[in-house]
Amino acid sequence: MGGLFSDMSKFGIELDDDLEIFEEEKKASPGAAAAAGPVELKEEDFLLDKSVTCPLCDAPFKVKVVKNGKVKQIETDDVLRPVFKEMDANKYNVTVCTVCGYATLNNAFKPLPAAQAKLIKEKISANFNGSVFLTDDPTYSYDMAIERYKLALINSVVKKGKISERANLCLRAGWVVRGKRLSLKPDNPKFKAIEMDCLKQEDEFFKNALDGFVKATMTEDYPMCGMDDATVDFLITNLAVHFKKYDLASKTIARLLTSTTTNRRIKDKCYDLKEQVVAEIKKQKNQ
Ligand SMILES: [Zn+2]
């Protein structure tokens, strides 16, 4: 995991070289879009600066959020990344306190239990340098958005947050990295290098998301990050297919298709995925 966190010293955060997203669980449980086409409105037209008071350090600060109901999701891709018509709203899902470094998903930015608050204060706030997160730009660049997700992920690791929370942050960080990759212009002189770098990071985030959600299904109760069991299984299925882990995908598909609580929409998609998985397994056997 070192690669994802290698540049955190610029936030004033010193991390152990061997920091791993799921380190704690290894010890604890051994068993265990880019905007499509030209649009007249600019990205900033869909955003507003929201004033927030930090529940950890009481400092006031501002965060850019997407205006309610202003952007339309047109589809999800193979790793369930929401693709929006007007702009990439995935960039704006993390709240960062630029004073103390407390960061998490917008809807989870709330007061922390005392033990977790202490950990964040000691391990993040103590030396935090928030200047990286201050900007006069009317939007967050992809790089800024990715840094915000990484800081949220570090917060979750440091405060020993739930595995599902870390998996969810990895998934969403991966979505934003993919958004960056798809927004790259081929005439950028560094196109190839940046694209390769994005692909590598995407892969690492999605792999951690898959591992984390699989672990979480064995140790946590539902709802998990606000998702019911069918939604989490469907997410695992899609990530498993993405990584060609067809045995895992077969298992979750079978579970989804036999469950009485899986909704019709997910079941229909599972039938399609099942066909694909069966064909791929056959292909592998014939090789
Ligand atoms: Zn704060």
Describe what this molecule looks like in 3D.
This protein is mainly alpha-helical and 287 residues long. It folds into two domains: 2-221, no CATH class; 228-287, no CATH class. Helices cover 48% and strands 9% of the residues. The chain has nine helices and six strands, in the order ααββββββααααααα. The protein has helices spanning 2-5, 23-28, 114-123, 142-158, 163-183, 191-219, 229-242, 246-258, 264-286; strands at residues 47-53, 60-66, 73-76, 82-84, 94-96, 103-105. The strands form three sheets. The chain has a two-stranded antiparallel ribbon. A hairpin with a 5-residue loop joins strand 3 (73-76) and strand 4. Helix 5 (163-183) packs antiparallel against helix 6 (191-219), helix 7 packs antiparallel against helix 8 and helix 8 runs antiparallel to helix 9. The radius of gyration is 20 Å and the shape is globular. Residues 28-32 have low confidence and may be disordered. Bound molecules: zinc ion. Zinc ion binds next to loops.
